[in-house]
Amino acid sequence: MKRAVVILSGGMDSTTAAYMAKSEGYDIVALHFDYRQRTQKREREAFESICDALGVVSRYVIDLPFFGQIGASALTDSSIDVPTGGIEPGVPVTYVPFRNGIFLSIAAAVAEKEGAEVLFIGVVEEDSSGYPDCRESFIEAMQKSINLGTKDSTKIAIKTPLVHLKKEDIVKTALKYGVPLELTWSCYKEEVEACGVCDSCRLRLKGFEKAGMEDPIKYAASAT
Fold first, then answer.
1. β strands within the chain, DSSP E
2. Which residue, 63, 93, 58, 101, is CA-closest to 199?
3. Other beta carbons less than 10 A from residue 182's beta carbon
4. Would the pTM count as exceeding 0.85?
5. Domain assignments of the chain as residue spans, ordered by start
6. pLDDT of 129 higher than 80
7. 162-166 contacts: CB < 8 A, separation 24 or more?
8. pLDDT tens-digit profile of 29-78?
9. Quick one: fold of 3-211?
């Protein structure tokens, strides 16, 4: 059976990508990262629940404590507040330096070990928070580098099925593929009830609203 390594954070985008990979007949190797993010425990819980729902047997959880040492992001440095005033243009303080580049490098190593031919990653370029490592051109460059840096017999493609979608289209796609959205977690700040006001919550809520759907996860009473 053909195999795919899926980078699975537990969020709506990566989970939708995982379900799309399954629909294409791939045996999924799920890869999750604990990188000292604020909602690490909740994201891990989402990852395990989604893997259970997908019937995924091969699971990797990679610990990357150095992201906390580097800091420079509101997601990994508790001294930097997560913005809640609305999405602003440019690269936000929630950007984790070169995170997807590091994730894809590790995913390539796992793929080479597991004999996987594809990496799935749920990056979104057009309607994301402005992260440079979500750009399609960056992903294409990473694919070239991965294949230059692995065995000649290793041929790995990176699939980004959501890269050009808006959030409302991702919601619709998730519903089409039967994604259990109630298991996913997107909030940057909280682990019990989503805050509703961080960039990630705002983008998610906007997507559900434009799709004419109600988000199945709970938000704090103050959410707008």
1. 3-7, 27-34, 58-63, 118-120, 157-159
2. 93
3. 10
4. yes
5. 3-211
6. no
7. 162/13, 162/16, 162/17, 162/122, 162/123, 162/124, 163/123, 163/124, 163/125, 163/126, 163/134, 163/136, 163/139, 164/125, 164/126, 164/136, 165/124, 165/126, 165/127, 166/126, 166/127, 166/207, 166/210
8. 999 999 999 999 999 999 999 999 999 999 999 999 999 999 999 999 99
9. Rossmann fold (3.40.50)
